[in-house]
Amino acid sequence: MRLPVSGRKIVVLRMGHRPKRDVRITTHVALVARAFGAHAMILADVVDEKLLETMRKVIESWGGRYFKLVCGIPWRKAIEEWKRLGGCVVHLTMYGENIEGSDVLERIRRDPRDVMVVVGASKVPKEVYFLADYNVAIGNQPHSEVSALAVFLDRFFQGKELIREFEDARLKIIPCPRGKKVVRLR
Amino acid sequence: MRLPVSGRKIVVLRMGHRPKRDVRITTHVALVARAFGAHAMILADVVDEKLLETMRKVIESWGGRYFKLVCGIPWRKAIEEWKRLGGCVVHLTMYGENIEGSDVLERIRRDPRDVMVVVGASKVPKEVYFLADYNVAIGNQPHSEVSALAVFLDRFFQGKELIREFEDARLKIIPCPRGKKVVRLR
To answer: What is the pTM of this model?
Structure first.
């Protein structure tokens, strides 16, 4: 199963991670990045060994070795380097253009560049709103960077990311209406 | 802005909440429930004062007083009572029928009953898979109850929940491509 917006790389940049407080939320962000079709995630500014270990285990069990998780790059450097290499930057924020009822997603889909999706934790520096090519709101209500990222990618890939096969998986779920069916592939 | 699947009540049941460990994830689940058009959330088995306080403040600022958060009902009782009152139960689990590439969402949308959406934390008791009318996977990969709930509701309401107005709001965001625009309504 190939993703429909083919040829474009999607990288998630997670900013503002506070090592103890955000560890579980950032893990959920990384799991969403992988499960919803991103190719990589950058955790800005800090190194989180526990997150690296969790994602290593998930990939070992459920596949997707292409998915890279990189820690510790300063956020400004990550964004500027991405732009220098010709990518565009989508910042998810409740203050941005609403993905529903505006043409912002259409414009992003027509833009041929690779996409960096920026998600913050608490307060995001004002500069990010101006470095970004698109500030996109998944609705203009407070919710979560986890849900914002998932809904953005689900709409970007038009749902097709959810039936993607992950190579090198050791385990695979057979969808079923009751109970759990898991097959061991190797 | 009325939601398209009108007349049907949507209640989220959050199970398996571990008071310290899950406090932020459960807060994100509650924020998603409100922002994505649910009418209420039940936090099963435990009372979390901090969560109640956070949601009270969010509703005070951003509106939606109709949204009810109830804590401490035993999960089995909550599900059984919901079914006794004629509602159907949708359990979100990576082992269920995939929302993409199956007709499960169509069946739920055709089902005229009110909907309880069950999201677990760590392990969900096997019984839940059998009490549920529908076990639905938002893809068969591990990610997060926060993202699973958001994508389910986004697809259930066909995106229209994201342009809904919340009554009694004190603050309102004016979507914009750069920076932040917030108006004070009262």
So the answer is: 0.97
- The two tokens of residue A162 are 């959810």
Smallest Cβ distance to B178: which of A24, A129, A159? Answer: A129
> Considering only CA atoms, which of A70, A74, A69, A63 is closest in space to residue A131?
A74
CB contact under 8 A, B140 and A25: no
Topology classification of domain B10-184 = Alpha/beta knot (3.40.1280)
Beta strands in chain A (DSSP E): 10-14, 40-44, 68-73, 88-98, 115-119, 134-137, 171-173, 182-184
Residue B105 and residue B92 in contact, taking contact as beta carbons nearer than 8 Å = no
**Residue B3 at interface with chain A, using a CB cutoff of 8 Å:** no
Q: Is A92 helix (H, G, I), strand (E, B) or coil?
A: strand
Q: Give the closest-approach CA distance of A31 to chain B in angstroms.
A: 5
- Whether complex ipTM tops 0.85: yes
* A25-78 per-position pLDDT tens digit: 999 999 999 999 999 999 999 999 999 999 999 999 999 999 999 999 999 999
- Please state the domain extents for chain A: 10-184
